[in-house]
Write a structure and sequence with these properties.
- Chain A is built from 17 helices and 15 strands.
- With 466 residues, chain A is an alpha/beta fold.
- Chain B is mainly α and 302 residues long.
- Chain B has a two-stranded antiparallel ribbon with strand order 1-2.
- Chain B is flat, with a radius of gyration of 24 Å.
- Classes of the chains: A alpha/beta (466), B mainly alpha (302).
- Chain A binds chain B through residues 2, 5-6, 8-9, 12, 16, 83, 86-87, 89-90, 107, 111-113, 202, 259, 262-263, 265-266, 268-270, 413, 415-416, 419, 422-423, 426-427, 430, 432, 445, 456, 459-460, 463, and chain B through 1, 6, 9-10, 12-13, 16, 36, 38-41, 44, 58, 122-124, 127, 150-151, 153, 156-161, 246-249, 260, 263-266.
């Protein structure tokens, strides 16, 4: 019996040492003639299914690496994929491919978390980087703060633009022409007023237009007035008079006084979640919304009989046929320190081939329509377009081609900047501050933060060189 | 081999675990709080810059203020309510176990699930119940003032800067059963003869609670107070899920801001510095609780 403690102790030491020795990344079963790569991606639900099917498509193609091994990819849907991937990269065990949001890729590049893709693209004759629409390609290229030249850090998975969606039945009911969306901001105000309804007790039952629904682009309204959020890398321009003008215009939909403003908060509070039939637009609580290309999917799932249309959101200035939109994108990257960068590149390349991209973004064979989005390419196959489920896909493609399509600023402090802008918008919407005050506050807070971040990035790079 | 060494050997796995996974991160976070650290790049020593930045960071101070307000509301409310609940359950003759179970059930529900359920409650269910009440009030008011314009409406709860924080406090009371359970155990420990003696002296029920019950359970009150202080200052799950710090930072608490700094803006050094300030605040309050209670807590064993 006296030996028991020693045995337990020895066992423990053994496990501990074994853990240290075999501290290897969880390897997938690899046979001599196949090599497995892992891919972490954000999507779940039907979008995840579409991406997974695209990966399966890649696997069926049995691409080979330099050693002649067949490349097989494992798709893992991962919540908070950006944070988990960063931790995995920091820990030295990243996936071979990671899906991020375009708005943060440049931040990760500056943190040295990603492999630059030039090393693959420059040696790959088949890859054509001129086929991309400029509004999306801008996200892929970034000159790191410490670098002399811009490099390519990511490739698109699915792009998106945003447009005004309107409810045709409501238009008809309000005596408006159902097929004619508002052409100017003044018209939008007028239409919104006609669409708004109250019950006999004076309770609000419908808003024609409610800017914070869904509120995902509260930071972007200034662009519809010709404003800008930054001037190059060094300067924050949150308090641009045009941004202020935009927010002042939004306040026209905020009721006449504090009480009505609060009523709107309560009204919005009761909306169901976005991905449900209780969605404010789908359930007829709001007549016009700013939404992305994906909205058609959710309409199809939750209210297929809805009669709706979409068109560019009007601007305050004469845009000469070049409407404003937010061009946003999901991207795939190759994390620094991954085990199979060459094989990972094969997957990126396949998804960015016409075949792969069309399959992912909207082929019937892919789970009845893939992700139902546009592609990031300039030229689209007419046959593909004809079989696509989105009834108004061309609207979004045209928006992506517009000279005024907005790319999210590639600032090292974008995440914070966006958060500050959202807070500021809330403050204005709750009538706790005027647009001047709120945006002025953001300006005063963000400019020093940007300067400090740039300084830190430059300092760490200078140190690395030494 | 003597038993001391043997004991140590058995405890070794735990000791090593504590060292590796608790002590080391603890010590490392002190160092990181003096650095600029984005996780992916090596930490860079910047002296007390994080701490000086905190001093002028409006959102940090707002978060600290909000945390104090939350603690100031939720701790006394929680303690009083749980104690009242425990005394109530203790005083019933039959079904004590049943009541205890009912009050304890919320504690068994994962915090995330509860937060989402409460999101629905505050988002419309509660006001669905309150609306008729407010309508009735407005109807009565209209009798006195036929030209009534300003109708009373129930609060917007999580959507309003005034009500968002109190809503979270209200929701926090949902798990009051846990504390009540601990009180109940101690209450049943109070010798019956003390109550009998008090009764003979002509004590009212209220006097019995004040002069017998409370002193006898004072160590548990102290324990629960300290646990509540720690819990209130570390509140994270509910605001993270339900309000994400909004609206207009009205529910931005220090833990939420720490999380955002660490994982959204990737400023681990700044987050570490804030964590240590939060730790100091909790430590000071805990020591204070001990100091204040020193002559007010009755330990039967002493």
């Amino acid at each position: 019996m006296t030996k028991l403690p020693y045995i337990v102790f020895a066992l423990f030491v053994f496990i501990f040492i074994a853990a240290l020795l075999f501290d290897q990344p969880p390897r997938l079963p690899t046979t001599p003639d196949t090599v497995q790569i892992t891919y972490w991606e954000k999507w779940t639900g039907f979008e995840g299914e579409a991406m997974k099917a695209t990966v399966d498509f890649f696997n069926r193609k049995k691409f080979r690496n330099k050693n002649g091994q067949v490349i097989q990819c494992r798709y893992l849907a991962t919540t908070q994929v950006n944070r988990k991937s960063l931790m995995a990269i920091a820990g030295g065990h990243p996936p071979d491919v990671a899906g991020f949001w375009a708005r943060e890729t440049h931040i990760f590049a500056d943190m040295n978390a990603l492999m630059d893709l030039n090393q693959f693209i420059d040696n790959d004759q088949e890859f054509d980087k001129t086929k991309y629409l400029d509004s999306f390609w801008r996200y892929c290229v970034y000159k790191r703060v410490a670098d002399k030249e811009a490099k390519i850090w990511c490739l698109p998975t699915t792009p998106a633009t945003v447009a005004l969606h309107w409810n045709k039945e409501m238009f008809k009911e309000a005596g408006l022409e159902p097929e004619r969306p508002p052409q100017t901001l003044e018209e939008l105000e007028e239409f919104a007023a006609k669409l708004t309804r109250r019950d006999k007790d004076g309770r609000l039952v419908r808003m024609g237009f409610l800017p914070p629904e869904p509120g995902w682009w509260n930071w972007a309204w200034g662009y519809y007035f010709g404003g800008k959020l930054n001037d190059g890398l060094e300067k924050i321009t949150a308090d641009d008079p045009k941004n202020i003008a935009a927010w002042k215009w939004l306040l026209k939909f905020n009721g006449r006084d504090q009480r009505e403003a609060e009523e709107l908060i309560a009204f919005k509070q009761a909306f169901g979640s976005f991905d449900s039939p209780q969605n404010a637009f789908l359930s007829g609580k709001v007549g016009m919304v700013l939404q992305g290309v994906w909205m058609a999917n959710f309409i199809r799932f939750h209210n297929p009989h809805l009669k709706w249309g979409c068109a560019p959101f009007p601007t305050s200035f004469d845009n000469g046929g070049e409407p404003v939109t937010v061009a946003d994108m999901d991207v795939i990257t190759i994390p620094r320190g991954c085990r199979h960068p060459e094989e990972a590149w094969q997957l990126l390349k396949f998804i960015n081939s016409n075949e792969g991209m069309e399959y992912l973004c909207g082929r019937e064979e892919n789970n009845n329509g893939g992700q139902g989005k546009l592609t990031p390419f300039k030229d689209v196959d007419a046959k593909w377009l004809a079989q696509h489920r989105h009834p108004y896909l061309q609207v979004f493609i045209d928006l992506a081609k517009s000279k005024n399509a907005v790319t999210i600023p590639q600032l090292p402090v974008w995440e914070e900047y966006q958060k500050e802008l959202s807070s500021a918008f809330e403050r204005v919407w709750l009538r706790k501050a005027t647009p001047e005050e709120a945006l002025g506050y953001v300006q005063r807070r963000m400019q020093p933060k940007l300067e400090r971040a740039l300084q830190q990035l430059r300092a760490s790079e200078a140190e690395a060189r030494r | 081999m003597n038993s001391g060494r043997k004991g140590l050997l058995f405890a070794l796995p735990w000791i090593v675990g504590l060292g590796l996974f608790t002590l080391y991160p603890l010590v490392a976070s002190i160092y990181y709080s003096f650095t600029h650290f984005s996780v992916l790049q090596a930490p860079k020593f910047i002296g007390i810059a994080n701490y000086t930045e905190m001093a002028t960071d409006g959102i940090f101070w707002l978060a600290l203020w909000n945390t104090f307000v939350y603690a100031g509301l939720s701790i006394p409310l929680g303690l009083v309510l749980s104690l009242a609940l425990a005394i109530l359950v203790n005083s019933v003759k039959r079904g004590q176990v049943l009541y205890s179970v009912i009050f304890y059930i919320p504690e068994l529900i994962p915090g995330v699930v509860a937060a989402i359920v409460w999101l629905f409650i505050f988002g419309g269910l509660l006001n669905g119940l309150l609306d008729p009440v407010f309508d009735a009030m407005n109807w009565v008011r209209r009798l006195f003032d036929p030209n009534l314009k300003e109708l009373w409406r129930p609060p917007v709860w999580l959507g309003s800067t005034t009500w968002a924080l109190p809503s979270l406090v209200l929701m926090g009371l949902w798990t009051v059963g846990q504390t009540a359970f601990i009180y109940l155990a101690k209450l049943q420990d109070v010798p019956q003869e003390l109550y009998e003696a008090a009764e003979i002296d002509g004590a009212t029920p209220w006097q019995k609670v004040w002069f017998v019950t409370l002193p006898m359970i004072s160590p548990i009150i102290l324990f629960n107070t300290i646990m509540s202080i720690i819990g209130a200052f570390q509140v994270f799950t509910q605001p993270y899920i339900m309000t994400n710090g909004g609206p207009d930072n009205a529910t931005m608490f220090v833990p939420q801001y720490i999380w955002e700094s660490a994982f959204v803006t990737m400023r681990m050094g700044y987050a570490c510095a804030m964590s240590w300030i939060l730790f100091l605040v909790i430590a000071v309050l805990t020591v204070l609780a001990f100091k204040i209670s020193k002559d007010r807590v009755y330990y039967a064993g002493r």
